[in-house]
Fold each of these.
Amino acid sequence: MITTSVGSQVELTDAECLQAAQLERVWQEPAGFIGWFKAVHHTTIGRRYFFTALLFFLLAGLLAGAMRLQLAFPEAHFLSNDKYNQVFTMHGSTMMFLFAVPMMFETFSVYLVPLMVGTRNIAFPRLNAYSYYLYAFGGLMFYVAFLCNTGADRGWFSYVPLAGPDYGPGKRPDFWAQLITFTEVSALSVAVETIVTVFRLRAPGMSLNRIPMFVWGQVVVAFMVIFALPGVVLSSTMLLLDRTCSTQFFNPAVGGDVLLYQHLFWWFGHPEVYLIFIPGTAIVSTIVTTFSRRHIFGYLVLVLALVSTGFMAFGLWVHHMFATGIPQIAESYFTAASMMIAIPTGAQIFCWIATMATGKVVLRTPMWWVIGFFFVFIMGGMTGIFVASVPVDLQVHDTYFVVAHFHYVLIGGAVFPLFGAIAYWFPKVTGRMMSEKLGQLSFWLFFVGFNVTFFPMHLVGLRGMPRRVYTYQPNMGWTQLNQIESLGYVLLFVAVCILLWNMFKSARSGAVAGPNPWNAGTLEWATTSPPPIYNFLHLPTVNGREAIWDAAPNQPVVVGLDEDARSFLTTRTLDAEPDGRDEFPAPSIWPFLAAVATSLAFIASIFTPWGITLGAIPVAITMIAWFWPKRQPAERRRAREIWQSE
Amino acid sequence: MAERVDRAVLDVSKLPTVGFGAHSITWWGILGMMAIEGMVFLLMIASYFYLHSRSVEWPPHRNPPDLFWGTLNLGLILVSTIPNEWYRRRARKGDLRAVQIGLVILSLFGIAIVVVRYFELWHLNTDWSIDAYGSAVWTLMGLHVLHLITDLVDSIVLTILFFTSLVEGKRFQDAEENAAYWYFVVGFWVPIYLVIYWAPRWLHA
């Protein structure tokens, strides 16, 4: 078989075939090389986000391999100390800024949220394309700098004074600071798109209490992005200003303060952890529902747990600063707050267990990854309780114990659900099933490899091995544990290779999936696999939390949108009653050109402050061209306008 | 043709295509922008006071910014809300002439405010590179200038657009939302003005 869309065809009437052809004409993405840069559909951009984030995950994984090779032997010289500093900084920064958030938030929001709420594209599709190009250019810049021996080397948080003008010569920290600027613009754009899509573009009937858990997760994350990222916007801008414009924010000689950097950074940095793992829990809720064959237990509890996690995440940041000499009263408060966040997370875990215990569990690959998530993530939560306590934290601060803790939380909370999500949504995106055998093989290899790699880090950390140091002496008693960790890396490497092979192979010759291979209940499964470029032939309406399972025998479909334009329906935020009709903008080259102009301005500002001032001019020009309306659609819309009655 | 005529439908063809405020999705988008930028302003104001808490003297060894130009700008900015509100309301009625006039007036206000802002910058009595106080004042000011200029460019482009034949309902939405965004720029100038011009005086006493 060559095409992937066969087998998923439901018999269409002649009228429906005509309608489908018409929709196809109106919605299709422009063809050709230039056309590639004009694309605006969320499935197109979502796929690009996925492949780019996956690429950065693999690059950062290879950097991890370089570190494991270096640390497998005491006093090794595979990497110099300077190269090692760059490698661990690139690894951390890539995983956080170029993989975890773009994958868990941007990719999943962009691809899935519009499908799950039953609309035809994401709100502000051109902004969406712009956000993707900025993200891709930011990552490209970061790695080109690395290849030119200008890779960031001050840790993924780039603390001052180490990264400041006095101790961070050259341009390495500046590239780091601008990487942050690139990725924050893209994450903030997708946050706004997601919120508007969910608040205004839901299918009629999908009132707030029927929004799929996955979508709730992404909305909570979108709000957190909006309120958390400004912290790192400011800290990285101040860092860049201190370095290139001689401001004095972090210079204690003239009233500056280095802890200001840490406060601003962790105002973002702590919520960042939740930005990464809330999508993971949202994926887990989805997979657990589908493979337990019942509605989720405790929907309201789960939603409230996500929302309260979102709020509490902003009250914990100082627990990253226990070793900085802040007042004890503050430490006590932040210890208590850090313990408290275990409550909503615990509530979620009990809801999942209850769902599985009372459902009929089907053990397929996605479900295995979820089970792996339970084990690994809960382990990470346990050591989290250790490090939330100030005396323990002071002991293990900056040791491998912390490295073990956050890899358990982040790989457990994000990568396990991600691999589960790949197995789960692969049939939707490609129209074909992944191999179950290879899927379970990669799961077990990864699960074992993960624990072999990271569990010994707890021990070696308790024995005093510091983070971010390129080697150790043979008599420290750390050698054997480090060698076990490095062997574990080999297992992880093989597991990821098998996963990639499985994806590659299955995309070509996997079993044809059909629209809903898992018999799931959410709306993305109500259309063909892969979805057509207009998402749904008939825009759906919703009758319950699991739209497909709860559909009435003759569930109505939406009619009356103009079919000669990219029309969509807006609904009210709370009850999702139909509210109005609107039109998405057509594909355009300008978001791409605006992203090029923005990137040039950002990169130039690493070298001169004029970069941002003069660089703003082409940005403004390209954005005006992006905004400027075309005559024909304007006239068409004007002819059909119905104004809202006041 | 195969018959499946009894399929239940929800007909939305009579719904409006032009809505204002919460009925317009760009209004929500702008609200999101305001939340992001407002958060940046708030954290910058917090940073200002954090740096103050670390200093013995505030402002260190110098006079606070001169009041005249900043207060003049506060006056101008507050007065501009009158024509702003007028054309915002007229935009909701689709009154082309009023929106054209309103946008021209607001663009002129914007130019005047940017000019006065230029004089403000000369009377801050500090430089960004002297000390952390100076850096905080200039960054706070810079953030607001960025918003002023962005909004001014937006307003001018929209003004030009409103004198072409491309005007349609969506553009009235744009005009209404441009006015709404101006309230954000105005609304944040009040606390920033107080921080830049009055906080040094009050904290000094």
Amino acid sequence: MYKYYVTARMSAQEQTNGGILYSLPTILLKICTLIPLLYLWKTIMSSGAKAEMSLEQMLSYTFISSILADILVVKTAATGWLSEGVLLKLYGRPFSVLGQLMAQTVGGWVPMLLMYSMPVLFLAPLLGVRLIPASPAFFLSLLLCVSLGFAIDFLFACLCIRLRNVNWLIDQIRAAIIVIFSGTIIPIRLLPFGIGEILKLQPFASLGGSPLGIFVGAGDVRETLLLQVAWNIILWPAAIFAFKKSQERMVSYGG
Amino acid sequence: MVDKLNLKRVLGLYGISAKMDLAWLLRDTKYAIAVIIADIIANLATVSSVFLISVRFGGIGGMSSNEVLFMMAYSTMITGIFIMFGAANNFRVSRIIGRGQLEHMFIQPVPVKMQLATMGFVPFTGGINFVVGALLLVIAGERLDLHVTPQWTLMLFLFLLATMTTIVARSYLVSTFAFYAPVAAEEISTKAIEGTWLLSTFPLSGMPSFVQIPLLTILPEGLMAWFPSLCLLGRPPLGLSAYYPMLYAIILATVAAAIFRKGLNYYVKSGSNRYLPYGFRR
């Protein structure tokens, strides 16, 4: 386990190699996106629009989605490293490739959590955001969300391997799918035409939108957790199997 | 010996880029079509999230869902123009600077600014977002019973030009950092353009002025789609002139040009350790 910890630590330190100022534009942009988005919801909800969630729930949903953005929708470096040749180098190290990717990703979360998420928490009372989850099941749901996120990411990496490194294309489509189907920006239950009822069953809905829904007290906790567990059970074996089969087809550029 | 620049030469350069784009489309049609579809899906997903909210709640901040659709169509057209003219990192110029590729441009017999203006033209593979945006604009216009006149069409063109000028000028302004720190600032223009793309799709109607004003001045995301859309709908917001985006674009472009030129002067004297004769960065 120590080698995974070291990998995560090196990944965290790598983010600050250029100095903390290097991360400042990203942090400022996140704040500049969060505040208008909160006021967008305030504008909508205060106009008398009827929604299944209250204003406080919606603000908390958006706020937590922003501060846990990297965790709620996991993205490893697998597809990028495939075209850069770095992924092949992981095979030369004495531990699991998928484990390295996971450790590297988790380590990469730490700088933004420390430099953005934690300081922004102090803004919560000013913005009318509640920071206490409605149910302790939120933490379990978050773990399941992270686990599922890794499985889905590895499946996308396998797709990239199969399609011979069209990683930009896959990243574009993946980003589009995540925006609508994960519920991290718009809660799935708020989508019009009743499509939320259908979309909540697909695997992306068990990513960010599920723990966020539990956090704000919207939605059925039991149903949400069951769906997350079910998708984890289905997709993890599929991801491991697909990755094993895809390894022989791996063509990596760069080096 | 630098080529003489005239309109024929400029159009010829655009023609060369277009021919290369067509060649890619015809030789690798499957992949080209996949890229086109991915572009459309990615762009529509970004703009549709706000539109879906407006449909669900019957509008946002005094803007009806059809007006929000109009705004999203405008945003899609802007994305289309961006992709159509900026496919060779010429708009994300910090990548060219940070990768030491500016040197390759210095040795060409065409002025650098003309290369940057014409090199990324991909009308065949990159124009589809513009077409989709235009179609959505027509649909939104019909739903709003918009009265389209030659003057209105001219204003649409001017607003599109102003928005593109603002985007490119801001990109070039921040890309100046790449002259001084090519490694650290290689992706700064990507951050400046794409980091705020979602923000530019937000309608600011009904928001407090301390949110609206910074987004019309410091970070001009409100000028990317919201302000021009309302002007085209005959309702310039906040009591500002409909020509405010054009004025902002001119000022920003002037400032960006001056600062970029300063950075370029520094660059040609100090050089870059990122240059490699075979084109890509270290």
